[in-house]
Amino acid sequence: MQTVELPTRQPVPLRSNRNFQLLWTGSAAALLGLFVAEIAFPLVILSLTGSPGLTSLFAAVQTGAAVLLGIPAGRLLDAKDRRAILIAAELARAAAAATVVTAFWLDQVGLAHLLVAGAVLGAAQPFGAARILLIRAAVPAEQLTSAVTAEEVRNNAAELSGPPLGGLLYGITPVMPFVFAVVMFVVSTVTACFVRVPSIERGTAGSAGGMFAGLSAVLREPTMRAVVMMIILVNGVAYAAQLIVIVLLRDGGTPPWQIGLALSGFAVGGLAGTALIPRLYGRLRPGVLLMTLVLFEVPVLLALAVPFGPWWVGLACLCFGLGVPALRVLIDVLIIRQIPDEQRGRALGGVITLFTLSVPLGMIVTGALLEVVSPSATLVALATTLLLGVAYAASRPTLRNANWPAAASHQGG
């Protein structure tokens, strides 16, 4: 008897995957609303107080809340319904922005209220990782890299368009960015309500090992530990480089609008870099690709020190941003996919907390260096730090020999 081989069922394309499209749309709305609000809050505080120090306090409060709740949020994501957590987080952000709108309407805007609203926005941020985890329930393993790439397109588009949109809306009337943010957070909430993914009964597995179980699992494994170290370095250096660019161009007499345009090169490069992901994926082992991308940033940092004016600096910023999307995909491949689902929320919460802490740490170290040496010398120091990080990573054979996940080895991006 002749055996009839039934055709294998092909996964639904991402553009037709209802759950993925709902998650993507909701995340795009939430990110755009957040970027718009993050521009408006400091502008309102500055207009109320006239104090740059109090204005910077908003970012400190927001970041502090995100860091404090990062690891506890991970434990909750492993123990409870992730969709419900995402809906609650977006409702909290919408409510925080809505209170600011109400305060404008009542003419009762105050510094303490704005800082509390900023703390709520920061506290909700770690719970947004629920969306990252829900995507893994909505997308087949062989499509995960394409899904993460689509996420990177969204992230960089929001980062590029959010700040100028926030400034434009604030110029119309100061309350307008907050109204926009409320609408965007509500859109994100509504889309999350319509997501339908398989319900997983985690039982005690989602809390086994305690709050730090996921992060401990990451840091115990040599490959994942090296990846975390590399991304911490790149993250801290990237934000520090933005501060140096501002100092360099300001000292050179560059107008503020040209400084802003040069800094937008980071986001433009990130957006353009998403097109490189399918071309880079699978060409090198993931660990080797990680080291190559970080090594590429070393001459870019040195190029920033060359005094050729704002357009040259903007081009260097663009080049720096090109590799960032691929680095984020490698975080997914080398860390998130390697952790079992029952620990993934805690691992993600812990890793994101470390990445978040690297930003103020990098800014503090860079600010201290700028007090004693020139911006160019500071850039050389940052480039040397990255070079040492690559040398350390290259000495880890487990990272050099890491392979792409089997489910994605045949995927073209």
Task: Explain the overall architecture.
By secondary structure, the chain is mainly alpha-helical. Helices cover 76% and strands 0% of the residues. The chain has helices spanning 18-49, 52-79, 82-105, 111-124, 129-138, 144-172, 176-193, 213-220, 222-251, 256-273, 277-280, 286-304, 310-322, 324-334, 341-372, 375-394, 397-400. Helix 1 packs antiparallel against helix 5, helix 9 (222-251) runs parallel beside helix 15 and helix 12 packs antiparallel against helix 16 (375-394). The radius of gyration is 22 Å and the shape is globular. The protein starts with 17 loop residues before the first helix and ends in a 13-residue tail after the last helix. Residues 1-6 and 408-413 have low confidence and may be disordered.
Helix content: over 70%
Main sheet attributes: strand count, strand direction, barrel closure = none
- Number of distinct beta strands: 0
Shape: globular
